[in-house]
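Co-fold these.
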Amino acid sequence: MVPAYRITRLTSDASVIADLSELLIHIVANGGSVSFMHPLTSEKATAFWKTSLAAADRGERVVLGCYDGDVLAGTVTLLLDCPPNQPHRAEIAKMMTHVNYRGKGIASALLQAAENIAVEQGRTLLNLDTAADEGAAGFYERHGYTKAGIIPDYAFKPLGGLTDTILYYKKIGKNDSLNS
Ligand SMILES: CC(C)(COP(=O)(O)OP(=O)(O)OC[C@H]1O[C@@H](n2cnc3c(N)ncnc32)[C@H](O)[C@@H]1OP(=O)(O)O)[C@@H](O)C(=O)NCCC(=O)NCCS
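Predicted complex below.
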């Protein structure tokens, strides 16, 4: 990743919510499968990030942003609020890099930062899902995630048409060798 980029934990702030909303709308418009359909309204995107950052403020998740100066180039969310019988697990979600910033290592750096936080929090298992069509399966496999399975016709792509989803997991932290 270019050294000038800065990865930071995001908290509830009007300008941060505006940046995240703009990025989410852009990603969905460009075919990114991140739970929303195109066209995504500013109201829906803002409501999503307000709720997400409120959860981050409560420590239930970590939302990371990668900034190039004042421009939000990418983001990822680490979901920490797991059920009582899964205190060792966390989930990677809402990984996205602005089209103009792709291929510069931003998502890789965000993923590494999220994994480091998960380890700090004592988590030993990460899971995630990604669309089979135009998703990020290859990206996660390069980063050591193991394919657990495929659910057919799981979700609509943002521009229409069903896609399978692929489930991934990765063991992390001190216990990864013990658990494998
Ligand atoms: C997936 C995504 C986040 C990657 O962002 P990025 O910042 O360009 O990723 P990086 O630059 O860190 O990529 C690292 C490597 O993975 C590769 N890569 C990126 N996306 C990939 C994909 N979908 N499939 C296979 N390889 C991929 C890159 O070519 C790069 O390879 P290299 O190191 O050999 O050059 C970005 O393409 C994106 O926002 N996609 C739309 C939203 C989405 O699908 N998010 C995932 C939801 S689970």
